[in-house]
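User
New here, help please:
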Amino acid sequence: MSHERIALQLYTLRDEVAADMVGVLQHVAGIGYRGVEFAGFGGVPAREVRLVLDSEGLSAVACHVSAAAMREDFEQAAAGVLEVGAPYIVCPWIEPGLVHDAAGWSAFTRELEQWARACAERGLKFAYHNHVFEFEAQHGGQYAFDTLFQDAPGVLVELDAAWAHAGGVSPVGYLRRYAQRTPLLHVKDVALRDGKWVTEELGEGEVDLTGMLAAARETGVEWFIAEQDHCQRDPLESVTANYAWLHRSMRQPEPTP
């Protein structure tokens, strides 16, 4: 697997982005990342962000866009994504309580499918990013995660490995279950510390990252996106360490058949 497909979810550096988006993009490119996934543009106009991306040789992999923003003005939300050149809009979060309401979850699933169709009309693709709670509720004998992707066939998967693991399922198994439907993979590690899930630097937690990367060779993953929700040291040090781990791991030769 090529390191050309390693990206960073900029939420990891959200405080730094709020202070200096341009400087962060330059720093991230200097580390070696080839792509970035946005969680907002740090107050910088999208057209200016695009100029920095182009000058630094970075690809805009995707943009996280809240459900509230899409409901308020989908056209405006999509315009910013198109302007920075990202091919994907990702819905990153929903109020966790909704997942336990079967009718509400079903309605939300239909809403996601509508957004996926609206994206397709604009030349974009649409994905949903999981947390733990989609595996904490079941509807009709299935995890809420699975009912969503069953009932919204136009929605792609952005699988967050750490939160799938914390939800009690195998990220490897879910990569295989949604093979060719998971173009975006959040490569994230997590460990249970004093009864709480803590995001760790890659290789420091308990997620089967090596097995996941092996499965990703076969399942159509386009981008490997490092993210750490909360860093245990300076975030700039963590994103450097996470790139080094992922770059080293992705350079390992594929097993011979």
About this structure: The mean pLDDT is 96. The longest helix spans residues 102-121. The two ends are 16 Å apart (CA to CA).
